[in-house]
Amino acid sequence: MDRSKVAIIVPAFNEAQSIAGVISELLPYGIVIVIDDASTDGTSSTALESSAVVVKHPYNQGYDAALNSGFSKAADLGCDYAITFDADGQHDASLIPKFIDLFSHGVDMVIGVRPQPARLGEYVFSLYARWKFGVRDPLCGMKGYRMSIYQARGWFDSYQSIGTELMLFGLRKQYTYEQMEVPIAARQGSGPRFGNRIKANWRILRAITMSLWHYPVG
Predict the structure, then answer these.
(1) Sheet (strand 81-84) strand order
(2) Short-list 187, 182, 163, CA closest to 115
């Protein structure tokens, strides 16, 4: 597959420590789009020097807004596929060809599955997603989409879904999907993607509430 058709979307906030290595591992597989969510540690400069496409937010807007910006940029670049990938070095870039192979065989979405949920909120969200759609780990940061799903929706996120709204939309519209085991390495960056444990569980529970509103059980 032509690598120019694959966007690898990497939201980043103060990830200068890890971003160059992450980009280096991803570049063979597609266009790397780093969304710098108003970092103060030189993340943008490091990403540019590492040959990524960089979108820089003027102020911190959060994980979901960063994904929105990344998908918008991928659409502007004419990409056919988008894969979301964490900036902290926890994801394995060698899995990207497996995502691409599934796309080439007609799969619309690839949903990563981590070894186990790290937080209570993640466990509860996984129960809902498994009950409603059969998805084991809705909050894994490594997912892949045909851009036609994004174009049908018109946006990636509208309610701070922690990266799940487009997936839930695709599932509801019965786009095809596969789940893939995604091992998680130790973080290289400055802090967890969801914030501290209490804040993280609150954000996740809020996302569950909004998901139930938009995609009720039953």
Answers:
(1) 53-56, 31-36, 6-12, 81-84, 143-146, 109-113, 177-181
(2) 182
Q: What is the pLDDT of residues 197-206, one digit of tens each?
A: 566 666 666 6
Listed in sequence order, the DSSP H helices in the chain are 16-26, 43-49, 63-76, 96-104, 120-133, 147-153, 165-172, 197-214
For residue 134 the two structure tokens come to: 């059969």
30, 89, 127, 191 from 22: Cα distances, Å? 13, 6, 31, 16
- CA torsion sign for 30, 96, 132, 213 is negative
Q: How confident is the model at residue 119 (pLDDT cuts 50, 70, 90)?
A: low
What domains can you pick out in the chain, each with its CATH number? Answer: 3-214 (3.90.550.10)
Q: Is 140 helix (H, G, I), strand (E, B) or coil?
A: coil
149 phi, psi to nearest 5 deg = -70, -45
With b for 16 or more beta-carbon neighbours within 10 A and e for fewer, the 63-97 pattern comes to: bbbbbbbbbbbbeeeebebbbbbbbbbbbbbebbe
Helix, strand or coil, per DSSP, at residue 75: helix
Q: HSE, CB side, 13 Å, CA atoms: give it for residue 25.
A: 19
Per-residue pLDDT, averaged over 162-174, amounts to 90
Residues 6+ apart with CB under 8 A from 208: 121, 124, 125, 128
Residue in 27, 33, 43, 29 with CA at minimum distance from that of residue 9: 33
3-state DSSP: the chain helix, strand, coil percent, rounded to 5? Answer: 45, 15, 40
